[in-house]
Amino acid sequence: MNPRMRDLELVIALHEAGSFSQAAVRVGLSEPAVSKRIQSLERQVKVRLFERHRNGVRITEPGQSFIHHAINSIRSYRMAVHEAQEANHSQHQRLRVGVSSMLPSRLIELLHSAEMAVRQSRQIEVVSDQASAVIDSLMNGFLDLVLVPSAPLNVAITSQRIARSPLLIAVQRTHPLAGNRETNLGELLEFP
User: Fold this and answer.
1) What percentage of the chain exceeds 90 in pLDDT?
2) What is the pLDDT of residue 112?
3) Is residue 178 part of a domain?
4) Contact, 127 vs 95, CB < 8 A?
5) Residue 90: which of 68, 67, 61, 120 has the closest Cα?
6) Considering only CA atoms, which of 162, 126, 171, 165 is closest in space to residue 144?
7) Are residues 103 and 79 in the same domain?
8) What is the pTM of this model?
9) Helix (H, G, I), strand (E, B) or coil at 13
10) What local confidence, expressed as pLDDT, does residue 51 receive?
């Protein structure tokens, strides 16, 4: 049987305290319980970790090696717990946004600048691709929301208009519509 994390902490407490009675106070156990667990651990590892004296205990040479690894194990365990909790927190704090590459480049630039500004408190991950690709990623759970130029034709997706983006046309200066401030599709059809 492998030592439990609590046993490793107990060995460290005993080493630091120098006596069973002080170690017992530190870990909140009775002195006989501490003694029994240390003896059980020494039987498991088949090494005497402490020399017992009238005035307390002293670590043995094999015990020093054990303590070194016990400290590293506890430190690694605590780091693993911390990093897992941070990853979990980060995952819940990340907003994954898919952006259609057909949207105006200025909007995509704004999203990327927002991503950088908000990164400290909430991460925004922006993915740019064809509208169908970002919608597929949304459906498969890889994205939290998507910005697309038109409402998807999928009943499993709810869409809401958040902005009106005018469609711009570019014509040569000599084109008959070049002087117009606004143009509708009917006018465009008049000029092949």
Assistant:
1) 28
2) 58
3) no
4) no
5) 120
6) 126
7) no
8) 0.47
9) helix
10) 96
Domain membership of residue 176 (yes or no) is no
H-helix or E-strand containing 146?
A: strand 145-147
For residues 135 and 79, membership in a common domain is answered with: no
User: Domain containing 23 — which CATH number?
Assistant: 1.10.10.10
Total of domains in the chain? 2
118-137 mean pLDDT: 73
Domain range enclosing 151: 94-166
Q: Report the pLDDT value the prediction gives residue 1, as an integer from 0 to 100.
A: 47
Structure tokens of 25? Answer: 């106070």
Q: Name residue 159's amino acid.
A: S
Tell me the one-letter amino acid at 170.
A
Q: What is the pLDDT of residues 68-99, one digit of tens each?
A: 999 888 888 888 887 787 777 655 566 777 88
Interacting residues of 155 by C-beta distance below 8 A, sequence separation 6+: none
Q: Confirm whether 174 is domain-assigned.
A: no
Give yes or no: residues 75 and 24 share one domain: yes
pLDDT at 25 exceeding the cut of 80: yes
- Determine, yes or no, domain membership for 175: no
Does 100 lie in the same domain as 40?
A: no
CB 169 within 8 A of CB 183: yes
Closest CA to 93 of 48, 124, 58, 56: 124
pLDDT at 108: 61
Shared-domain flag, residues 99 and 83: no
Triad 19, 21, 23: Cα angle to 5°: 70
